[in-house]
Amino acid sequence: MALEITVKGTVDTSTPGKYKITYSVTDPMGKKASKVITVTVQNNKTEPELKGIGDKVIGAEVTVNKEFALSGVEAYCSGLKIKKKAIKVSIKKVNEAQYYITYRASIGNGPEATENATYYVDSEAPVFSGITDYTADIGQIPSTDELLYQVKVSDNYTSSKNIDINVILTENLDGSYLVTYEATDEVGNKTVEQACIYY
After folding, report:
1. Nearest-CA neighbor of 165 among 152, 146, 178?
2. Cα atoms in the Cβ-side hemisphere of radius 13 Å centred on 72
3. Which of 21, 56, 67, 151 sits CB 3.0–4.6 Å from 9 for a disulfide?
4. What's the gap between Cα 143 and its chain centre?
5. Cα separation, 43 vs 156, whole angstroms
6. Cβ atoms of residues 80 and 103 within 8 Å
């Protein structure tokens, strides 16, 4: 005999209080029975744990608001994930290049967890050094490795090993070549410099 069981009501484990849950069962003959229980969520005595919080380097186009600050952030209490509404965020704009973020999480009147993070706004593009015009033998087109010899790139936040350099060759009408060097840091700031290959 198949029975149809339904459950009505929800329990918010992040908010202390009493929650009513109704269980109903209906048999194939249409007869019904129901049972109401009360679930009590007590004030928590364990401090929540905040995860995913850390200093960040962001691009100048990023809007720093609560939604962005909570991206990737989670809170747990006694091993159970709690709702994001239990996480309070305070955003302080220190200056045009820095934000100070404070995160707080608690359940009811329980102990509060606090974490801080600093967001650094990176609006500076990488800087090249060592780019010069190149003289080659007639008919020779230097390889990318040759064109990058002694070329270096630096950045205020991104490590040089994490910056990809793109080299583009464009032939000019006089047979020389225009060499375009491009470098982009981790938040998207881009720099472009050019040199020529002469014969």
Report:
1. 152
2. 7
3. 21
4. 37
5. 47
6. no
Element (H, E) at 118: strand 113-122
Closest CA to 174 of 138, 132, 133, 147: 138
Collapse the DSSP code of 179 into the 3-class scheme (helix H, G, I; strand E, B; otherwise coil) and give the result. Answer: strand
Two tokens, residue 133:
């015009």
DSSP letter (8 states) at residue 144: H
Buried b / exposed e across 110-130, counting CB within 10 Å, b at 16+? Answer: beebebebebebbebbbebee
Q: What digits encode the pLDDT tens for the residues 158-191?
A: 999 999 899 999 999 888 999 999 999 999 999 9
- pLDDT tens digits for 36-91? 999 988 777 788 999 999 999 999 999 999 999 999 999 998 888 988 888 999 99
According to DSSP, the residues that pair with 2 across neighbouring strands are none
